[in-house]
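Issue: ligand-bound run for iron/sulfur cluster - logging full I/O for the record.

Environment: standard queue, default settings, no custom constraints.

Inputs:
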Amino acid sequence: MKKDQFFSENLISWYKKNKRNLPWRKNVNDENYPYKVMVSEFMLQQTGVSTVIPYFENFINRWPTIVSLACAREEDILLAWQGLGYYRRARNLLKSAKQICNQYDSKVPTSLEELQSLPGIGVYASGAIRSIAFDKKAVAVDGNVKRVLARYYGFSGRLDQNEKLINEQASKCCPDKSNRQYTQAVMEHGALVCTPKVTKCGVCVLSSKCYSYKNKIVDQIPEPKLKTKKQKLNCISFLSLKGDREVLLKKRPKNAILGNQWELPSTNWSKTKHKFDKNLCPIPSKHWNKLDINFTHKFSHIDLSCSVYFSDADSSKKLSSNDEYKWINLKDISNYPVTTMSLKTLNELNLIQI
Ligand code: SF4
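Outputs:
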């Protein structure tokens, strides 16, 4: 049997016996399956399966159909996404649901062009949805798939250096039948057997034809990613309390990082440290005191150092009429999508418990 065919057929057989009982594979029918696959693919981008499971279950319980999701408020979606990170995915999922309801009769479309016209769905996700949801012949190459292919075929170097080679090989391996099972099989194999660190070659159904295994170079493929230098930024956050019960929060701009989430009003994020200046403060107060806490919040590409100033609010001053600022009762804070860094600050000061 040819090496490519050996790859796909053995992985499909292995998958049939070993697939995990993941929630997006349970209680599915022709009606709900494409929607469940779409939600899971949005959640699984940049995030591991075990983290996603409780979020997915909660999300599907709350919005069981694409129509229910399309009618949801963005604030509720962000709240349900809280802790999963990469919030742009949540906003794009909501926009995609609305577009599907408006343009595609509330049915997840099947063509590559239609899928890729949806916000947040690119080459990978469109391939995954076409293949997994609709059993079409389509290629979906995620990090797991890249690693399995690179090891099996012996592509030395980093995965990003072999992008073209891996994509070409992925197309050659893609079978004409059982594409739904095949796509999930390669991903599952990368997650359970051909894992980044503890590779289980001893039980692998590909080992007899695997280049890396036969040449004892499994630990050398792929070479590690180049470390990208993170940007180091700074900001000041302002904690204003009214009567010990209400905290002043501000909605972040829609298109900024963490867009539309609520936070302690803060300066912009800059390379240089901000000097405290009353003009930066969100509301007038006689005294702003620097608190003895500093946080560094780690994002994928930014380390943000944040210092915090505190003031009791002058309750006689009214907030501006726009709705970007809001006094929120601390006991109601879990009803709002608040940034993790602001939650951590409030928690550190024993104002809430997270
Ligand atoms: S033999 Fe090892 S390196 Fe090769 S595909 Fe299987 S698990 Fe991966």
